[in-house]
Protein 1
Amino acid sequence: MFSLFKALPRLGFRAQTLQVKNYRAFSDVYVNHRDTLDNNDSVPFDFTPENYKEIETILAKYPSNYKKSATIPLLHLAQKQNDNFLPLSAMKKIANILGVADMDVYEVASFYTMFNRTKVGKFHLQICATTPCMLCGAYDIVAAIEKHVGCKLGETSPDGMFTLQEVECLGACANAPMIQVNGEWVYEDLTPENVIQLLEDLKAGNAKIGPQTDRNHCEGPQGRTTLINYDSEGAHDRDFDQAKKDWEDARAAAKAAAAQKK
Ligand code: FES
């Protein structure tokens, strides 16, 4: 009988070839909840009065029988209120407000990397390492940050300032490599040198959002070549009112032509 394992050496494979010698963990976040002293059922959490008002505004956007649709906005709200950390009791509070099972909220919170179910440092650095960022040196950025702050991916620096996490594409590939901080602001066009300055600027409270070079937004070497007349007041090259009128005229003409054929 043909034996694959006996045949492999003759085909030039050695046992070692089949062994995975090194592997890289692609997630440093536990899916399951683990009770800790600062994150268990008995640790209280409640929204602030201001955030209860905000919750009313959020819930008003959905039909009353689809309150569950507000799960993600409420998770964001709780996390922001609680120093970028989403404890078990916050998820239970949200389930209670929405009238759903606790598990419905846990499922959402454990699926998305933007929800931190363990405490993070003052600055939660989400470092993109998907293909465009990786090819532009994301792992050099990781190495530079790790060396500077004194911790590895998935850890918090000894001074409690930085938590490092590798994440997938954050939608700023044109400015790769990049990082997102505290789930809000992005810092782009990083180099192993300018990222160190960025870390210091974050601590000092004067970090510049966006490209860390003199590049304007995501413009190429020729500068802006499209939307030349766009300004921040909302003026566009295209007259949308005229475009709508043209479309309505064309539709009316097509209807008239079809009626004539009958
Ligand atoms: S690959 Fe990094 S932002 Fe898209």
Protein 2
Amino acid sequence: MATETVKIEIHKECKWCGRYFSPDRSNQRYCCQDHQIKANNYRRQYGDDIILKPKKAMCDNMKKISAIARAAREEGMSYGKYVAKYLLPGSNS
Ligand SMILES: [Zn+2]
């Protein structure tokens, strides 16, 4: 099988989600454009380069979410309604 070409796949770890992917370009750092955009937004927001930090940010979000859920309960609203009323300036979907 000498004619068979062996394609070496380089697996890189996505800086955003930590998933392994085969980059199209050698300097690609994220598994998809979506994660690149998210990482760029993150960096702009926190002024910090991203080293799989969203996982921690997600934990903080979870705390925020439970605080919101509690506040919503106090107002007798569902979480979704509370978020829609107070936290979403306009629906994106
Ligand atoms: Zn990713």
